[in-house]
Amino acid sequence: MLNFTNEQIERYSRHIILKEVGGLGQTRLLESKVLLIGAGGLGSPIGVYLAAAGVGTLGIIDDDVVDLSNLQRQILHGTSDIGTLKTKSAEATIIEMNPDVKVIPHNERINSENAFSILEQYDLIVDGCDNFPTRYLINDACVMLGKPIVHGSIFQFEGQVTVLYPNKGPCYRCIFPEPPPQGLAPSCQEAGVFGVLPGIIGTIQAVEAIKILLDIGESLIGSLLLFNALTMDFKRMKLRQDENCAMCGEKPTITELIDYEEFCEVRW
Ligand code: ZN
Q1: For a surface tag, which of 44, 61, 114, 199 has the fewest beta carbons within 10 Å of its beta carbon?
Q2: What pTM value is reported for the model?
Q3: Neighbours of ion ligand 1 (CB under 5 A)
Q4: Distance CA 170, CA 167 (A)
Q5: What domains can you pick out in the chain, each with its CATH number?
Q6: How many Å lie between the centroid of ligand 1 and the Cα of residue 172?
Q7: Which residue blocks in 40-85 are alpha helix, DSSP H?
């Protein structure tokens, strides 16, 4: 176990007195390395809560800059951050929340060339991305690397969360084998989002991430949690690993990473 400073004992006292966390669990969090895909709507609450909880290393991958229209929901950033890199703004917010956290900014888009070298540095990937090419790329790379993903996505008033854990449950392609064809994906103009929604979905992702790091409770492996903010319904769907999955099935047909073309930049 780490030798906590007096300040750390006080900072993490409400965790340390929980028997499910304790000093050992807190040490585990401080020694964990988590990668956030995206510092936007979902990445904001994920980053803030993982930092507050004392996850010791947080990588953040995002190549975007803060825009005024982001501030309706992206609570890692503020008005004075407009025009600055999201990774930089996120790092400042996270360090202010908890100086124990080491932030590793990756100011780039993930693609087939850099994916392995970035992902292999982390224990767990929390996916808050806003586009299909990235989602499929991360899924495929994580199946190949055997790394768990806490997946979240949102659309207008609805969101979903699941945990994709290689060898323990389905991968993203078991559920959705291929990206949707162009005509079926929501067009850029239609893609509004209710500002609080990513707060709820991202916070659930943070809960799942911390549970995996601590190995406590029951995770959403094999379950898709669906949330509707208008009706305030939570539904849970059972998911099964597909033995014919092109990625994680018995005879995988996808053996290298694919850079799908981005047909619409739905920016959350
Ligand atoms: Zn699969």
Answers
A1: 114
A2: 0.95
A3: 171, 173-174, 245, 247-248
A4: 8
A5: 32-238 (3.40.50.720)
A6: 6
A7: 43-53
